Amino acid sequence: MTIMFRALVVTKDDDGKTRAAVERIAEDRLPQGDVTVAVEYSALNYKDGLCIGPGGGLVRSYPHVPGIDFAGRVEASDDPRYAAGDKVVLTGWRVGEAHWGGYAEKARVKGDWLVPLPEGLTTRQAMAVGTAGFTAMLAVMALEDHGLTPDAPQPVLVTGASGGVGSVAVAILANLGYRVAAVTGRPENSDYLTGLGATQIVPRADLAETVKRPLESEAWAGCIDAVGGAMLARVLGQIAYGGSVAAVGLAGGAQLPATVIPFLLRGVNLLGIDSVMQARDARLRAWARIAHDLPMKKLEAMVRPAMLEDLPRLGADILQGRVTGRVLVDVA
Ligand code: NDP
């Protein structure tokens, strides 16, 4: 008997338009891989918005099942590291882009791409964190590796603060004892951000202007930047001597209209953060830190629950910067 399961399937018609809808598909259509996972939860990240909708050059072929992250239970495994019943988490490796992803009741992937569910987290919590939160933790770790400590005289800046990366970054930094300045274009989210631990709200407009002076006063001990573009360029000139910016995202643009002066005269570091190809050891370290340093009550305050059917609408919303916190997709 053919086993069927539900999935969000994106198709592309002859004139290049994509369409996403929940369908029942046969298990024999799953891609190659050595571990089959019964997906319990997935999430919505910025990249998912692209893969549910226009593709953004990320999706290799159609029909496609998006979902760049998932957590669930191993159903069958040819990989000796995993056995049926094990709880696992996947982020990155171009799953949900080049390979079918987590917006389905079943996924089949390489064992190398999985990590065991971190001790202390449920599959629901792991996906409330998801790729965005995992990346926020990588950014915090990179800033720490470059000397950031909570006793710095200035606060740490987080841009795109009400989004997924930003929300988790604010909560982790605050819990570690940092003063956190949260940049948002949505003043109505101020209470939400102070609830996560932000000690200062910075209106997006304050950082929207392009660089006029290459160095401004040293306002921030460091920064986690989900926005890029003119805002990142501006922030570089406001970082304290020897401080670092972890560049995570491009919600505001991929250009960097900056000067090199902050690097040369203030020893500022620009640290690139990639979550997709991170080595397994770094992944295990980041997930262990998440379980330890992210208060679960604050994580819960970020959660916006959703079903597969909601994703076409929410995918468009995240591309417009209209999502607050983390959309958690209940797949099972
Ligand atoms: P979200 O959409 O959840 O968050 C982005 C936030 O940025 C928004 O909520 C908004 O916050 C702000 N924003 C949106 N548009 C603009 C704009 N035009 N100018 C300034 N600010 C804007 O996305 P995610 O948190 O999931 O991802 C954030 C970025 O990080 C994306 O670019 C994503 O591709 C990238 N990313 C990179 C990863 C990596 O491995 N390097 C992994 C995960 C994500 P507010 O309303 O508060 O201003």
UniProtKB/TrEMBL annotation:
Coiled coil stretches, renumbered: none
Molecular functions per Gene Ontology: acryloyl-CoA reductase (NADPH) activity
Cited CDD domains: MDR_yhdh (cd08288)
Domain of life the protein comes from: Bacteria
Rhodanese domain boundaries: 142-190
Cited InterPro entries: Acrylyl-CoA_reductase_AcuI (IPR014188), ADH-like_C (IPR013149), ADH-like_N (IPR013154), ER (IPR020843), GroES-like_sf (IPR011032), NAD(P)-bd_dom_sf (IPR036291), Rhodanese-like_dom (IPR001763), Zn-ADH-like_protein (IPR051397)
Protein name: Oxidoreductase, zinc-binding dehydrogenase family
